[in-house]
Design a protein that fits this description.
The chain is mainly α. Helix content is 70%, strand content 4%.
Length: 373
């Protein structure tokens, strides 16, 4: 019996919506009854509830961005830029659904085991709040697995076009400065930007807590830290658990998860670079192949034709009329020759790709340096 992967993927997307609604309801209940559910008011652990809130906000944003991918891929194919025996939209859609469904099955199991299992065996968390943390993490695991499954499928579906019969048709005059493949290249680039949402979350809290330590700390008369919430995240240097800040010099206060956040942010940037450049490198490889097999022979033929026209002028170099005729014939051919020689072979402008790669590699090295130092 053949499995209907299109139906399976549609069910997963429906499950995602149901889980998102359940998560929103659960989150609202927690905000109003946090102390009953966990024994602590929500204000005492802002990182925990803001993490879940970030997931609830990020999922519809990611879904909106990713929903455009198949339309852009089919547009690239229907425009004749990719010629293949696998270029039927139904065939592409089925291949995508198969990859997405299988990726979701693997990712959701891995996330549930790692995240939920990690919370379950963690000994420092609040015992009363742990069941609710597990419930929230389980819901988040389904949401994250769905979005990552879409991203994985979007990258792997390009394998449909890896056969020798596939032809990439380059358009050197395209306004996207990517030979017409910019619509697809930016689809991958924009999708990869979604991976940076956790990076922004971690960076916000890292800066916020470090600012509280260095610029805005205050001890109340009873010795507690103000704001109380940040006090739960600050430890004395060398300690691994929140301590009474009044018993520790302010110069030795550190963010409990500082190094963990720095390493996680560096890993996040690595994932961003890979998710952006791996699929684009596939496109670039086929674009270079097309340049070698189609563009260069045309350039050589065009160059020889221009040379012949100019060579004829040498025979009539004293005839102004002949020179004018030669120039009129050569000018458009020379312009076309220049255009083809400069034909892009990367699916986004090279300047954008280079800036992205350099800035992220610098960020990765800087974050790891801070963590090690």
């Amino acid at each position: 019996m053949t499995r209907d992967f299109n139906a399976a993927w549609r069910k997963i997307l429906i499950l995602e919506v149901a889980v998102w609604v359940a998560g929103l309801v659960y989150f609202v209940i927690y905000l109003f009854h946090a102390e009953t559910m966990t024994g602590e008011p929500a204000a005492d652990d802002p990182i925990a509830w803001s993490m879940f809130l970030a997931a609830l906000v990020a999922v519809p944003v990611a879904r909106s961005v990713q929903s455009r991918f198949l339309r852009r891929l089919n547009a690239t194919v229907s425009d004749g830029l990719i010629l293949s025996d696998q270029d039927d939209p139904a065939t592409i859609g089925t291949a995508f659904a198969r990859l997405a469904s299988r990726s979701f099955a693997i990712l959701v199991v891995v996330l549930l085991v790692l995240v939920v299992g990690g919370i379950a065996i963690e000994t420092r968390s609040n015992p009363l709040g742990k069941p609710h943390l597990i419930a929230g993490a389980s819901l988040a695991a389904v949401l994250i697995a769905t979005r990552f499954a879409h991203g994985v499928a979007a990258s792997l579906v390009l394998r449909q076009f890896k056969g020798p019969e596939t032809v990439f048709v380059l358009n050197p005059d395209a306004q996207d400065k990517a030979a017409g493949f910019g619509i697809l290249g930016y689809a991958y680039y924009n999708q990869a930007l979604l991976v940076l949402i956790p990076f922004l979350f971690l960076a916000f809290w890292l800066v916020a807590v470090e600012f509280a330590i260095n610029a805005g700390p205050a001890l109340k008369p009873d010795g507690s830290f103000s704001p109380v919430a940040f006090g739960n995240y600050i430890v004395c240097a060398g300690s691994t658990a929140p301590t009474d800040q009044s018993q520790c010099p302010q110069s030795e206060w550190v963010f409990l998860w500082r190094d963990d956040y720095l390493v996680a942010m560096a890993i996040n940037l690595v994932v961003f670079v890979l998710s952006a450049f791996l699929p684009m490198s596939f496109l670039a490889r086929h674009m270079r192949k097309s340049r070698r097999l189609q563009v260069w022979p045309h350039v050589e033929e065009l160059s020889a034709h221009v040379h012949d026209l100019r060579a004829r002028y040498r025979e009539d170099r004293d005839d102004p009329t002949a020179f004018a005729e030669m120039q009129a014939r050569v000018a458009p051919l020379a312009a076309e020759l220049t255009l083809w020689r400069a034909c892009p072979v990367f699916p986004i402008p090279v300047a954008t790709a280079a800036a992205t790669l350099i800035s992220n590699l610098s960020g990765i090295l800087g974050l790891l340096g801070f963590a090690i130092g």
